[in-house]
Amino acid sequence: MLSNLFDIPLLGALLKSRWTWRLLRLGALALLLAMIAWGWKEHGIPGIKAGDALMYTNLTNHLFWVWWIMGVVIVALFFGRSWCAVCPLGWLNGLVTRIGLKRELPGWLKSYIPVTLALVALQVVVYLFAIHRYPDLTARLLALLVALAVGCGLLFRQRAFCMLLCPAGAVFGLYARLAPFELRVKQNGGCAACSDQSCVSGGSEWRRFSLGRGVFFWHSRRDDCPVDLVPEQIHDSHDCTLCLNCVHNCRNDSIRVGFRRWMADLGQSPLPAGEALFLVVLLGLLTANFSKVYIDLREALLWPPQQAALLLGWGGDGFNLLAAFWVALLLPVLMLLPAWAAWRLADLQVAALPATAAPDAPTDPPRTEHGFWHRIGYLALPIIPLLLAVHLVLAVVKINAKAGYLPFALRDPSGVKSFLAINVMHTLPGPGILIPLDILKWIVLGLLAGGILVALSAARRCAGQLPTDTSRRGYLLGALLAIALPSAMYVATLIRWLFIR
Ligand code: SF4
Ligand code: SF4
User: Fold this and answer.
1) Which residue among 130, 145, 176 closes a domain?
2) Cα(81) to centroid of ligand 1, in Å?
3) Which end of the chain is more exposed for a tag (fewer CB within 10 A), N or C?
4) Cβ atoms of 350 and 320 closer than 8 Å
5) Is 168 near ligand 1, meaning CB less than 6 Å away?
6) What are the annotated GO cellular component locations (predicted)?
7) Are strands 255-259 and 181-185 parallel, antiparallel or unpaired?
8) pLDDT at 367 over 70
9) How many domains are contained in the chain?
10) Domain-located, residue 161
11) What tens digit of pLDDT does each residue of 5-43 get?
């Protein structure tokens, strides 16, 4: 039954109803607009020294940085890209395409380069302007995202905003390969006889509404698949946004949504070069973010750009530029280089020829040459569970520490009265943590250890599915190296952060 949630009596009907999703999306959009309004004029509190006094007490800041950015990682663990099914930005983008120019996205934009640049730009802007500390800046960021989603919808067909500018969607796409949840057809080959393929094309329909003797008809357009997927051809969940438009459009009830085994999509194919680059950048940024709490490691990681800035005589912005380039690209590439080299060397072919043989005598046919990013695409696969574990650790720690602010933020969305009551007048006790630190540290260590074990198991599984023209042992050695170096840094950070205090 759990392999098809539509079979569960009430839940199935709710999931299949377009109105469930319309109401959820409408609610999410209304909340997003309210968040922009609640945060727009709130920067700090006049007379209060701490400029970022409203960082957690303001509802906009709290909801966005604690629950939206961090909480959805926990959703992704179980349900892959399912946040995209209710995300107000993606929905808004899709709605606006109906009245827009419906231009096709140029081929060169259909790679992961734009979204990788968006990820780096977002990190740099948040770091430089400390957007996460100030509700008015957070509200402006949200307003900008709404404007970009509308702009993309006016220009392009499909969900261009999701493809070009939403790093969250790309991250969920990576984690969706592991999630124990999928959308597939019930029976392979069952769609061959379907003449209109309405699941993909959407199409339009007449609707009839009658009230007493009055009968009304209206012509409505069905929503099509925002990413042009054919359900029968989905073998990997990373692109599917789980919007369920195809389920609503299919006249033959051929599609199911349900649970499956973990990591089901991993190893079927390498990450395409663009997505491998996205993962590499994500690896660098997550490593740098994680190491923030281990000062010695952070200083060691930032030593090269510091020295380069000194040599070039660059201070301030120059150093920030070098640091961003280092953290987002050079550092993670260097972290993966030993893995690539080990696998590449294992593919060297050495043939012993008889002394009498001519140097150009035929030997075994040469193996196919796998390019650098093609190999990184394979080596990146077992790193996905590790990154998910690190993301989960960050999410759990953040939610544990800050979730207590939610009741305050709900009672006083601006956050001013709550801050004053807690910190100045002391008429309210400060929010506590959900789980005591002595228990939490073991939970997060367990999460990280689990991520490392799953990554090792993923490496084994991916090695088993490699093409035959390359060395599986070499790949396995490379994958172990790719997992070992970041794992050592993450475990050291966690121990230094939570166990040695
Ligand atoms: S890709 Fe991003 S913007 Fe699009 S639906 Fe998913 S989370 Fe929302
Ligand atoms: S395959 Fe179906 S659920 Fe997935 S994105 Fe397309 S329409 Fe939405």
Assistant:
1) 176
2) 9
3) C
4) no
5) yes
6) plasma membrane
7) antiparallel
8) no
9) 2
10) yes
11) 999 999 999 999 999 999 999 999 999 999 999 999 999
